[in-house]
Design goal:
The complex is a heterodimer of chains A (about 220) and B (about 350).
Chain A (H helix, E strand, L loop, with lengths): L5 E5 L3 H13 L5 E6 L15 E4 L10 H9 L3 E6 L4 H10 L3 E4 L4 H12 L7 H8 L11 H13 L2 H8 L3 H16 L6 H12 L9
Parallel strand pairs in A: 1-2, 1-3, 3-4, 4-5
Chain B lengths: L1 H32 L7 H22 L7 H20 L13 H13 L3 H21 L5 H66 L3 H10 L7 H20 L6 H15 L3 E7 L7 H17 E11 L4 E9 L13 E7 L2 E8 L3
Classes of the chains: A alpha/beta (about 220), B alpha+beta (about 350).
Chain lengths: ~220, ~350
């Protein structure tokens, strides 16, 4: 059996830290919270430094999002799930560009957080519905070109919050929905600044045959 | 501004008429009477003719209620001053500023007619006229005190009278401008009031039109024709309540009216105990009120049919605006839209009903 997945939780609210630890521990298999604290330092020292996944609140007591902390963690090769109060698209897209594997709003609950953490543990991206909405509504100039089907999957996922429903609507399987979402994220990983997580994502997508070398 | 322009055109005509009357009524008789005294008389007659001609030329513009063009006004003033010098030079030495010197007062009137729109030039021209006449008077020979005194009285009285006319004209013009401004202000206020009234009337009609579903429902409940415990009645109430909330939100002044309206609908559903998750993506775009009404209209119906849970989403991309609801509803509640602007699609998927309203700008 594989070693248990570990996470470090950085959030300035004790109740959120406790809640996240409970959700992660209650999953099957459970995810262990190795360390937690209100300061990003917990992710760099002691048990936090070796945790597989960093769950990072973007707004640590200040009005400005902790994008610098996110960038440093990602550059050190850490797999980061951003867990934020704010649902604004621009911040979400910036976090993806910096190399976060997931941007999750606190309005999205347990199920998404556990799944995002588990995906991050494998180095995989996870796209919750609100992030799908942000990607579908992305109007920036450098956004990657998505196929009509990919856009449809994003929109349907954003609208329904249910992959089974998306699959039913589009007449595809739930796993095809997932691979569409993954391919979209690989496309996004190829734009903006370079990051180890993004490079790994693209490399694995090629290995898995999700995209071809000619797509690069 | 049209009013004061009209008034000033009238003033110009009056000044022109005064000049013509003064020339023919007051100045022609002495000219004819003293033909023998002038040296030579033909110079005097030519000056008279030139001045008459200037009046006629001015009449071409002034009678059509137009101001004089600058070349005509300035050229005319030069001609008039020259005529004055000629007429004055032909005076008998002892006739200056007396009955025989008909041109002195008349030239002032001509200058006023020509230059009344250019006050600075007018003052300069009148001063030049008086100065040249006085200089000619001085140069023509020795004068005793009685002559000088008489001349002074004439110069001052003519100058005083004509200056007074100029001042009155200017005051009148200023008053007319002020009056025009006040009138324009009053018109603007009246227009605004009328617009506000119209808006209020429109608003009332719109409300009355959109209250359509509510009034028969209230009447039915009041009459006892509808049973409040009946599921159908409850659903109609839910619909009416959501419609009213949306209607109240419609005219609020907020940065993102679409999301504001959608939130009002969601709020109405949540008050009924429906668990609603709302997601908004993309930045606000300008949506005409009519389109907004048609985007949220189907949402109102879909939400009023939701039983326990609903997912509401607003997505705005660079190409379109999409409002969608996925809710657990009673079967058989199709939503039909007849709107040419907004494309509405709805369908049942097992226990859930999906509705989507899409609008593409352009």
């Amino acid at each position: 059996m594989e070693a248990q997945l570990t996470a470090v939780v950085v959030d300035d609210h004790p109740a959120v830290r406790a809640g996240v630890a409970y959700w992660l521990g209650a999953g099957t298999p459970p995810i262990t919270v190795a360390a937690s604290g209100e300061d990003v330092r917990v992710a760099w020292i002691g048990d936090g430094a070796t945790a597989d996944v960093v769950i990072l609140d973007l707004h640590l007591g200040g009005p400005t999002p902790a994008l610098g902390d996110l960038r440093r963690l990602v550059e050190a090769g850490r797999r980061v799930v951003v867990y934020s109060m704010r649902a604004d698209d621009e911040t979400a897209l910036t976090c993806l560009e910096l190399g976060a594997l997931c941007y999750l709003t606190k309005a999205e609950g347990e199920e998404h957080l556990v799944e995002a953490t588990r995906a991050a543990g494998r180095g995989d991206p996870y796209t919750p519905p609100s992030l799908a909405g942000a990607l579908a509504g992305d109007r920036s100039d450098h956004r990657p070109a998505l196929s009509a089907r990919e856009t449809e999957v994003l929109v349907e996922w954003f609208q329904s919050e249910s992959k089974d429903f998306v699959a039913q609507r589009l007449g595809i399987t739930a796993s095809t929905v997932n691979s569409h979402l993954e391919r979209i994220r690989v496309k996004y990983a190829q734009i903006g600044r370079e990051a180890p997580t993004k490079a790994a994502l693209v490399a694995r997508a090629i290995q898995d045959g999700l995209i071809g070398v000619e797509d690069l | 501004m049209a009013d004061d322009d009209r008034l000033f055109a009238n003033i110009r005509i009056v000044l022109l008429a005064v000049t013509a009357v003064v020339q023919t009524g007051l100045n022609a008789p002495p000219l004819l009477r003293h033909q023998a005294d002038y040296r030579p008389a033909w110079a005097e007659n030519a000056a008279f003719a030139v001045l008459a001609l200037v009046t006629v030329v001015c009449a071409v513009w002034l009678l059509r209620r137009r101001p004089l063009p600058t070349p005509v006004a300035l050229g005319g003033a030069v001609v008039v001053l020259a005529a004055s010098v000629v007429a004055t030079a032909a005076q008998p030495a002892d006739g200056y500023f007396l009955d025989v010197h008909w041109s002195f007062g008349l030239v002032g009137w001509h200058l006023i007619v020509l230059l009344v729109d250019r006050v600075g030039v007018l003052v300069g021209a009148l001063a030049a006229h008086v100065l040249t006449s006085v200089t000619q008077f001085v140069l023509v020979g020795d004068h005793d005190r009685a002559e000088v005194g008489g001349a002074g009285v004439v110069v001052l009285s003519v100058l005083g009278f004509q200056s007074a006319i100029v001042v009155i004209t200017l005051v009148l013009r200023r008053q007319a401008r002020l009056a025009a401004l006040v009138a324009a202000d009053r018109d603007r206020i009246a227009t605004r009031a009328a617009l506000a009234e119209q808006w209020e009337r429109d608003r009332r009609q719109t409300f009355a039109g959109q209250l359509g579903a509510t009034l028969p429902l209230l009447a039915g409940l009041a009459d006892g024709a509808l049973d409040p415990s009946d599921e159908g009645t409850r659903r109609r109430c839910a619909l009416a309540a959501t419609q009213l909330r949306r209607l109240f939100a419609e005219n609020d002044d907020v940065p993102d009216p679409l999301v504001h309206e959608v939130k009002a609908c969601v709020d109405a559903a949540e008050r009924r105990g429906v668990e609603v998750s709302l997601a908004v993506s993309g930045t606000a775009v300008a949506i005409p009120t009519v389109v907004r009404r048609e985007l949220t209209g189907p949402l109102v119906v879909a939400l009023s049919h939701a039983r326990t849970r609903a997912r509401v989403s607003v997505l705005r991309t660079d190409q379109e605006v999409r409002v969608a609801v996925l809710a657990d509803t009673e079967p058989g509640d199709g939503i039909v839209s007849t709107s040419p602007l907004v494309q509405v699609e709805s369908g049942t998927y097992g226990p859930r009903t999906r509705m989507e309203a899409r609008w593409k700008p352009n």
